[in-house]
Amino acid sequence: MSIKSQKDFFSGLMFMAIGVAFAGGATNYTVGNAARMGPGYFPLVLGVLLALLGTVITFKALVVETEDGDKIGRWVWRPVGYIVAANLVFGVLIGGLPSIQLPAMGMIVAIYALTLISAKAGETFDLKEILILSTILAAGSYVTFILVLKLQIQVWPTFITG
Amino acid sequence: MDLITNLSIGFGVAFTPINLLYAFIGCLLGTLIGVLPGIGPVATIAMLLPATYSLPPVSALIMLAGIYYGAQYGGSTTAILVNLPGESSSVVTCIDGYQMARQGRAGPALAAAGLGSFFAGCVGTLLLAAFAPPLTELAFKFGPAEYFALMILGLIGAVVLASGSLLKAIAMILLGLLLGVVGTDVNSGVARFSFDIPELTDGIGFVVIAMGVFGYGEIITNLAIPEEHREVFTAKVSGLWPTKQDFKDMTPAVLRGTFLGSALGILPGGGALLASFAAYALEKKIKGKPGEIPFGKGNIRGVASPESANNAGAQTSFIPLLTLGIPPNAVMALMVGAMTIHNIQPGPQVMTSNPELFWGLIASMWIGNAMLIVLNLPLIGIWIKLLTVPYRWLFPAIVLFCAIGVYTTNNNTFDIWLVALFGFIGYMFNKLGMEPAPLLLGFILGPMMEENLRRALLLSRGDWSVFVTRPLSGGLLAAAVLMLVVVLLPSIKRKREEAFVEE
Fold first, then answer.
1. Contact partners, residue A101, CB within 8 Å, separation at least 6
2. Which of B190, B411, B431 sits opposite A152 (nearest CB)?
3. How many A-B residue pairs are in contact by the CB < 8 A criterion?
């Protein structure tokens, strides 16, 4: 038996796995009955339904012919990696990481870091251009979020402001 | 006339300087993101939600609404000049609009889109004002069983009318409903699926999901496509005004588009996207005069009708939201979030408890449409310049706005990690051909559905037949089943597939 639609096959498997996981997790809570539903009732029903649907989708992907096999295609790890990394670094810098006693670096440093890292996700990377871009973004964010909207965000590193 | 008094309350609210300013900002931002390919209204509204905290609720909603219908205007500019849909609802506008631009008729194409949108927007706003009160009356007759049935109908409607695989769309709804379950259960106080992470006991923020899946997911997908050569017809936009013949051709098309778009916007699952596809399909079916330019070769009707339809649909999709509290599409789901942030429970009581908000929002839409026509036609040159901004400058800025936006919602870094995770998930959805919009709808409706299901069955002592024996609820469920059956009929199934392949 061969996979007729790669996309459907794997999404079906994913739905099955998630459905089973939620349904299984739901049994840890009180399920109750229809008249007196416990916290586990709704997720259990949904999880079972999702797992069933996933099975049907996977089955169809093995049986129903498609024109081009619905290939998933190449994964582009580069943008995924850089965008996710940019986010993680931004979070660490703006809020600090108390578990390893890293102090918060504040918004401005975080913006420079995020822009520089995320720009690497693109095809071309020109350092000078990106530095100008991050300066504009940092200044713009300072004006909008701090001066105009008056949001409570730490702007400068802790060791400067104290 | 009630309508007149109500509208005058509305205009009184909408014409205050502060609200005019926010309507303008909304329209401006909407046009901006509409013009820029690769960023849509869902991601933008999600990004701006936190920024609306400090605004009065009316101003916040006026601005967010402006973004949605503003994007419908802006999207057509990119579609016509670059052959890229700036907005998903402008996909069909590319077909004839771009051909018109290649023949040096970009001006009339833009004018047809702009004028058609303006007319449709005005009609849509009037319909909203006229239909909202009677529907609200009806909504007060709804009990938990009816609400549950209505939400089923809404969710089924959303997948039936959407493109792509029906089964996968339903599975995405279920997944969304399940994600909505995460967090503390209101009835028992049990923290469900929170893995002892304190931040998860409040549930997953829907801003997090919307930004991760739509914002980051879109960026990653866009970056995966190599930069293509873009042909921009900037120099050729001269002579904006359509000829007399153009007007003759486009007027009936605009009327048809407006009518169809308004009707489809009200339907659960409808909205701008569906409206424009349906309008283009209808226009192609209608025989033109002999000697008319064929469709796909630059027929003005192929621009005027879908553009009117998507704008009318954008306006009327507010009807289910404002009267029943049920969001018909992903953008409206975000509007529910915006209302909740400001402690307004969407639903029939909004009209009586917050009349200034309700009518102010409606009146602002008309004002917004008037602003948009000015923004889009005489100032078209500015938007064309924007099209030359390279994506490599744009996407780091979008990443930043998402990150800051999420952080400011709760001031916690955990949400930032979560967005990164959902960004990856969003890319995976894209790779596996899974549509994220039904997921977001399910996520928003999940807690409401569970609540109403529990209440309905508690009242009926666990008897499931309550959903079919109560006439309103039974009728709604029957409608949902009918929709599913109709779509699964072989002949219609084929037509539906054709309609979505045409892009």
1. none
2. B411
3. 189
- Please write the tens of the pLDDT for every residue from B357-387: 888 888 888 888 888 888 877 777 777 777 7
**Cβ <8 Å between A122 and B193:** no
Shortest Cα distance, chain A CAs vs residue B494, angstroms:
15
Residues 6+ apart with CB under 8 A from B442: B155, B172, B173, B174, B175, B176, B177, B179, B180
Q: Who contacts A108 (Cβ-Cβ below 8 Å, separation ≥6)?
A: A138, A142, A155, A156
Task: From chain B, pick out residues whose CB is under 8 angstroms from the CB of A79.
Answer: 219-220, 223-224
Which residue on chain A is closest to B433 by alpha carbon? A7
Query: For the whole model, what pTM was predicted?
Result: 0.79
Residue pair B160/B500 in contact by the 8 Å Cβ criterion = no
How far is residue B381's CA from residue B391's CA, in Å, rounded to a whole number? 19
Rounded to 5 degrees, what are φ and ψ at A37? -75, 135
Distance, CA of A126 to CA of A133 (rounded, Å): 11
pLDDT tier for residue A105 given thresholds of 50, 70 and 90: confident
Cβ separation B399–A118 shorter than 8 A: yes
Cβ-based neighbours of B241, under 8 Å, separated by 6 or more: B107, B108, B111
Query: Residue B29 — very low, low, confident or very high, per pLDDT cuts 50/70/90?
Result: confident
Spatial distance between the Cα atoms of B297 and B281, rounded to a whole number of angstroms: 15
